[in-house]
Amino acid sequence: MSSSNNDNKEVSNEHEARKPRLGNSTDDDAVLSKKKALRKEIRARINKELNSEIIKTQSAKVWEKIFELPVYKSSKSIGLFLSMPSGEINTDLILTDAIKKGKEIYVPQVGKNFEKCDMELLKVVLDKKEAKDDNEIFHKKWPKNKWKIPEPPEDMPISIAKPGDIDLLIVPGLGFDRTRSRIGQGKGYYDRFIARMISDETPLPLVAVGLQPQLVETSIPVADYDRKMDMVVLPDEIIDD
Predict the structure, then answer these.
(1) Is residue 133 within 8 Å of residue 165, measured between CB atoms?
(2) Which residues of 128-154 are buried (b: 16+ CB within 10 A; e: fewer)?
(3) Would you say 159 and 193 are in contact if contact means Cβ atoms under 8 Å apart?
(4) Is 201 helix (H, G, I), strand (E, B) or coil?
(5) What is the C-alpha to C-alpha distance for residues 75 and 55, in angstroms, rounded to an integer?
(6) How do the residues of the chain divide into helix, strand and coil, expressed in percent and rounded to 5?
(7) What does DSSP assign to residue 115?
(8) pLDDT tens digits, the chain, 241 residues: what are they?
(9) Residues in Cβ contact with 24 at an 8 Å cutoff, skipping those fewer than 6 apart
(10) Residue 110 — φ and ψ, nearest 5°?
């Protein structure tokens, strides 16, 4: 995704996906251009500073903090992402913890139409053997999508998350800043999902998680459709104000 052609496609796809919700096109184009440059910078830093052992160590520190949050302890259902093969926080620890504590888990399904940029979260339905298997987390046997991320198998019962179904959403991202702004990979999956799930009548706590190189000390460029996180949890700190 770091090549010139892919970067141009990324901006084009993001612009097309956002277009109906944008205001001044000149201002929006400027934001998209700044995001494109920032994504390059963050990806370069991730590639330089992270390896599998560092990811494992930093991931564990993040989940230790999450496990102590009142909003996690009290949640009966959580939205969780399944990790990319590399360059991202590993979610295996929190998946295991959530299963042991009897929480309902919802995970993303993008499906085969990747350019549509729509995502649903599906409730994980495990049989008794899968739920008790301490040797292997359920998603290890699941099929993988275009980005090598596991997705629910076709034979799993379909239960799509509706507003009010999820008590806590754990949000991934490419980068975060100290104002709790987030920049994603450029497709807008989470922006659209969050917009569908949240209303004045249906709040949804948004807790973003990331690794230390993903913290941006400058301000992330934002547009009207970008939503701030309620909290950003990193290996060495929690940003919540």
Answers:
(1) no
(2) eeeeeeeeebbbeebeebeeebbbbee
(3) no
(4) coil
(5) 26
(6) 40, 15, 45
(7) G
(8) 333 344 444 444 444 444 334 344 556 889 999 999 999 999 999 999 999 999 999 999 999 999 999 999 999 999 999 999 899 999 999 999 999 999 999 999 986 555 666 899 999 998 766 666 666 788 998 999 888 899 999 889 989 999 999 999 999 999 999 999 999 998 889 999 999 999 888 899 999 999 999 999 999 999 888 999 999 999 999 999 8
(9) none
(10) -95, -35
In this predicted structure, what is the pLDDT of residue 13?
Answer: 46
Q: Where are the beta strands (DSSP E) in 7-110?
A: 77-79, 104-109
How far is it, in rounded angstroms, from Cα 139 to Cα 13? 29
Could you give the angle at which helices 4-18 and 25-49 cross, rounded to 10 degrees? 130
Residue 78: strand pairing partners: 105, 168
- The answer to whether the CB of 204 falls within 8 A of the CB of 198 is yes
Q: Are strands 182-183 and 175-177 parallel, antiparallel or unpaired?
A: antiparallel
CB 96, CB 184: distance < 8 Å? no
Four-residue CA torsion sign, 18, 106, 236, 231: positive
